[in-house]
Every structure is written in C-alpha cells, then in structure tokens.
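Fold sample X.
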Amino acid sequence: MSQNVTEIVNAKEFDLFVKKGNVLIDFYADWCMPCLTMSPVFEELSKKFKGKIKFGKVDISENRELAQKFKISSIPNFIFLKDGKIKEQFIGARYLEDFEAKLKNCL
C-alpha cells in the first residue's frame, strides 16, 4: 500500500474517512485477479489526484459488514463519495485513461 492509499479496516474508520471531501473506495479481495490487475491503476490514480481525492481500499473478505452495507456483489467495485454520499460507482476492471476521465467528471 502506498502513502496515497489508506487501508480501511472497519466501519468506524470508513465513516471517518469518507465523511468529508472527495473519496474513492476500492472494494477488493486478495484472491480476485481483476482486483490485483487494478491495484497499480488505483495507485497511479492516487498520485494523479493527490490533494483532490482521498483513496481508500476495503478488503471485502475482512470487512463483510461494509461490503453488505454497499451491496457489493461484484469486484473490483469502486465507489466515489462526496462528503459521505455516493456520487458514482464503477464496477469491474478498466483502463487507466478511462478511469481517470470518469474521476475528472466526478470532480
């Protein structure tokens, strides 16, 4: 995990992390190959949007409560929140350029 991405380990930490500002959460699992493929893309985006978007990761195997709360049934699953409210959701692997354009539209 890079210094630009926060690993979120419980619901309380999640609530504090997403409460204010623009936040992108990556719901993933270590056993998910598309999730592993997206990891370097997520890292790159965290650098490109540093100071504009906070980046966090939630392992659904370790945080079933959060996965259920957000009805995560497919991974990788990315949720963009603004001040704690869901603004956009992206499901599945995608190219860096596509993902970057979608995030710019969210800002």
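Fold sample Y, listed below.
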Amino acid sequence: MRLWSSHSLRARLLLLLFGAVLLTACVQAFVAYRSSLDETNEIFDYQMQQMALSLRPGLPVGGYASDGFRDDKDDSFEFIVQVSTADGQKIFQSTPKAELPHKDATGFSTFEARGTTYKLYSLVSGSQRIQVAQDRSARRALARTLALRTTSPIMVMVPLLLFLVWWVVSSSLEPVNRVRLHIASREADALHAVETSGLPDEVRPLVDEMNLLFTRMRQAFATQKNFVADAAHELRSPLAALRLQVEQLRRSVTDRERDVAVLRLGTGIDRATRLVEQLLVLARQQTGDDEALPPVPVDLKQVTLLVLHDAAYLAHSRQLQLDVQLDACSVSGQTEALRIVISNLLDNAIKYTPAGGSIHLTLRAQAQAVVLTMEDSGPGIPELDRRRVLDRFYRVPGAEGSGSGLGLALVKTIVDAHCATLSIETSEILGGLRVSVRFRAQQRT
C-alpha cells in the first residue's frame, strides 16, 4: 500500500506492470494445469475403455488368478482390473489388495478405497461384468507434470520480462529525468527556454508551458529592472535638490533667509514623498500584489465624492470651477485602486489647468458600461505625445508645473488590471484635455 500511494510515476508503472506479468504467469500456469488435467482424464478414460473392451470375449469361470496382470510387489501398475459374473462371483482380479465394488450401473463412476479416490469404468459383456479402476492421484500427478512442462518456458521468461519492463519504463521516463536534472543544474537567473527535442508528446506540453512561464518571468524581471533604473534616475534629482536646500538652510544668516530655505526644503520633501508613494503604488500594481484580493462591487459615485472632497480645497485655492455630474453606478474591482485613478486624473486636471479655468467631471451609467470622463481647459497634450505620457517618468516637453511623470502611467496600469479602456483626446467643450475611462458595468443579480 505504501508503494501504491507513492507519487512516483516510475514506481507505480513498475508495480502495475510487474503485477500484470506475474498475474499473467499465474493464470497461464493454472490454465495449463486445468487443460492438462482434462486431457489426461480423456486419455486415461479412453485407455480404461479400451482395456475393458479387450476383455469383452470373456474369461472362463473359475479362472481367478491373483498374479494375472501384475506382481503384488510392483506398485507401478496404476490400473486395477476385475471380472465377475452377474451374481458377483469373481472370475479375475488383477490384485487382491483392492477389491472393486459390485455396481449394477455401467460407465464411469468413482469410489473411495485405500484412503484415496478411484475412478471406475464398468462394462457388461454377456454374463460377465468387466471393471477397470484407476487411482485419480495418478492422473493429477501426470497433469502436474504436463503443466510444468508447458509452463516452464513461461516461468523462465518471467524474470526476463520483468527486466524488460524495468528497462522500458526507465528508458521511457529518462527524458523527464533529463529535464529535471537540466533545471536543477541551472543558476537562479537562468530563464532561457528548456530544450524540447526528443521529449515524448505527453511531456512536451508541460515543458512548453514551463518555457512560457520562463518567458513571462524574463519579461517581469526586465520590467522590474527598468523600473528600478528609472526610479533611481528620477529620485536622483529630488534628492540632489534636497541636499542643496539643506546646504542653503545651513548657510542662512537672517530669519527671512532661514524661513525661505525651510519652506523650500518642506516643498522638496513633499515632492520626494509623493514620488516615493507613487513609485510604491505603481510597483505594487505592476507586480500584481492586488490580484490576491478578489474583486468586489465598488460604488464608483461614492469613491468619486470622496476624491472631490479631498481635492476641493486645492481647486478652490486656484479659483477653478468644478462642474460635476455623477450617476449612481457600480463596477467590479478594488476600491483603493479606483480611488487612485480618479485622484490622479483630478490632480492632473487641477495642476495643469490655469487659474480661473474649468474642470468637468462626469460619471455616466450606460447599458453595458460605466464611463468616467475628466475634461479641463488647460493646454492639453499634443497628439504625438498622448501615447508616451502613459509611459513611466515621461513628461511633455515644456509642460508647466511639477510632476514625476508617474500619474498617467499608474492610471493606465490600474485601468488595464480592471479590464477597462483609457482614451486621451481633446475636449470639444473646454478645449483642453479629455480623459475617459470605460469600465464594464457591474452585473446585477
């Protein structure tokens, strides 16, 4: 049972095939024994009939002879012959040691004598009854001998068959073992494809899927490597600015100079903090950490109202007019991730819209979709740059305001994770930028 429950495919195959070979040999031996026994019975029955028929001419009454057929000391003769009259008087008996029972029935029958079972053939010829008997153990012994001769070649072949089964199973599973050793000998950063030539059809799909996994891992590592390089490049500038601001604060003499330096240092720290926070969120979204959380129904209107509440003061300070139209709608996703999408879009609109401008935020529930639209009266984005602004750390040349170029890249990552679509166009109403996110509507149950 322990071997049967083993997870080793090789062990299970060997166990099943060994058992099949041994079971076949045993069945063959049993069938050979039964066939030999049947054939032996037919032959001996025929002999007994012929022996009885040979005495059909009859013997003279009173011709009893104890040594007629055999010497009593010779036990090699297997048959007992007895001839008697109709009234039971014995005319001839091959041996006095085994007297055959007087039976009226003719043909074959059995009886017990001398601690064993005999088979008896009776024949009536005229006034005489001819009986021939044989010990059945002699028949079984001959059947065993014949069966042994028949099955002995099979018994000799069984070890050879077992060895052949072991060799076939081992050689068939050798490609799997070769792949295992090849992968085990790899370095941790070796993600090139595994060679599939010579692999059986049952194993090749598994290795193909493994190669696809290696490809995805190479792409993920490349993305991570580029992300780290870009993040290090972007962090270099704010950190250098912080160092300069600290030096300026150290060299400040008057209170006015010191206040200005502290204000600039605080602004620099806020910018660096926001950059790091965006980097962490973007890294978490791109590595799929949120995929472990199942999507839930999200009230997008409520999330938008929370974002508007947080951004209202900044919009008011820049004297921006916010026009908001929100429909009650729900989508499937992660609440925090969707909050980041709306917050980044609104933050960009507030940042790049000139003072006194306008921002329109609409949330429309359609038949099969939910559409979030952010429009502003800012400078917009040239058509040639609309694809590139979705890349990390890219900013439109000559753009005013501070930024790290991560906002729209993070929006694009979250939108893709929610199986939504993002479009960037020119606002026909306000003349600035128009960003639309189209979600699949949450199915009602």
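Sample Y note: Residues 92 and 428 are 133 Å apart (CA to CA).
Also: Residues 204-251 form the longest helix (48 residues).
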